[in-house]
Amino acid sequence: MKCLITLFIIIIFTSLSVKGQVDEIEFISEGKKLNTYFYKGVGTENMPTLLWLHGNPGGKEDGTSETARQLTKNGINVLRFNYQGLWGNEGEFSLGNAVNDLSNAMDLLTSEEMLTKYKIDTAQIYVGGNSFGSSTALVGAMYDERIDKIIGLALCDHSYFGRQFMDPNSEIRAWLEAVMDDLFLPNGIIKQDKEIFMKDLTENLYKYDFVAQAAKFKNKQLYFFTGLNDNVCPIEDHLIPFYRKLKELDQKSLEVTIQNCDHGLNCETPTTFAEVLTKFIKK
Fold first, then answer.
1. What is the pLDDT of residues 113-150, one digit of tens each?
2. What is the largest CA-CA distance in the chain?
3. Coil, helix or strand for 162?
4. What is the DSSP letter of 47?
C-alpha cells in the first residue's frame, strides 16, 4: 500500500510538472483591475519570461491561452493581460494607456515577490506582441530601459496610422475609418467612442514614432516575424522603414523573418505563435 501511495504521489507531481501552472494575478494599472494571468513554465531553474501584449481588440484573457500553455511546456513563463478599456476592464482603450499598462506590468513582473515565486530569470525578460501589441511593445521600450528584448509579430507602426488619419488625401483613410467603425461604438465590441483612440494617436505622433526615434533601440535586442501578404500592416509601410533606419544606425541585435503569411500569420509554411516565440527565446 505504501508503494502504491508513493507511486500515486509521483504520478500526480509529474502530471503537474508537465502541465504547468496557471495563476490569476491581482494587477492594478492606474487604478483599474486588469484581467491578468501568469503561466508558469515547466522546470525547476530560473527561466525566461515573456510579457505578452495582444492585438486590437484581442480576446478576453481568462487563463486558457493555448499559445501560453505551449510556451510553458518549453520552459518559458508567460504573463498575459488585457489593456484597460477592453474585455470588461475599466478605463479607456488607447495606445497611450496600453503603454502605461505595459510599464505597470513591468513593475509587477520585476517585483521581488514575482521574481521569487515564479523563478523569473531577470536577464531573460522578453516583451512581445502581435499587431497593436507590437506597437505597444516598441513604444514602451523607447521609454523604459528595463525593456531591452522585444518581439514583434505582424509588426504595426501606429504613428503611421496616426499620420494617415490626419491626411484627408490618404489612400487608406477610408479603410481606417471603416476599421474603426467595426471596432468601436455603436457597432463594435469596444465600448467607447472611436475618437478617444484616434485622438490619442494624432496628438502623439512623434512620441509613438519608433522610426524617428530608432536610435533608442541601438542597444536593444529585436526580433520581428511578419508576412509578405500582410494587408493590414504592409511591410512596405510598417516594417521596412524601421528596418532600414536600424541598419543605418548599425543595430547589430536585429533579426527579421519574412514569410508568405497574412496579418494573422496564416502562412504558406504552417507555423504557430508558440513555435515562432520559442525559437527566438530559447535559441
1. 999 999 999 999 999 999 999 999 999 999 999 999 99
2. 80
3. helix
4. E
Map grid coordinates 531553474 to a residue.
Answer: 45
The alpha carbon of residue 155 and the mean position of all alpha carbons in its chain are separated, in whole angstroms, by 10
3-state secondary structure at position 138: helix
CATH fold for the domain made of 21-281: Rossmann fold (3.40.50)
Residue range 28-49, pLDDT digits in tens: 999 999 999 999 999 999 999 9
pLDDT of residue 167: 96
* Burial class of residue 214, CB neighbours in 10 A (0-12, 13-18, 19+): buried
Burial tier of 45 (Cβ tally within 10 Å: 0-12, 13-18, 19+): exposed
Rounded percentage of the chain residues whose pLDDT exceeds 70: 93
| Nearest residue to 22 (alpha-carbon basis) of 60, 53, 55, 61 | 61
Domain boundaries, the chain: 21-281
Residue 229 phi/psi, 5-degree rounding, is -100, 25
Q: Cα–Cα distance between 201 and 257 in angstroms, integer? A: 28
Beta bridge partners of 23: 38
Query: Sign of the C-alpha dihedral, residues 114, 120, 123, 127?
Result: negative
Tell me the pTM. Answer: 0.92
- Tell me the C-alpha to C-alpha distance, in Å, between residue 278 and each of 2, 113, 127, 163: 41, 25, 13, 34
Residue among 87, 42, 40 at smallest CA distance from 61:
87
The cell for 218 is 541601438
Q: 261: which DSSP letter? A: B
User: CA nearest 196: which of 93, 102, 98, 87?
Assistant: 93
Instruction: Provide mean pLDDT across the span 254-269.
Output: 97
Amino acid at 227: G
C-alpha cell at 31: 487604478
247, three cell numbers: 541598419
Q: Is the pLDDT of residue 100 over 80?
A: yes
The residue whose grid cell reads 507511486 is: 7
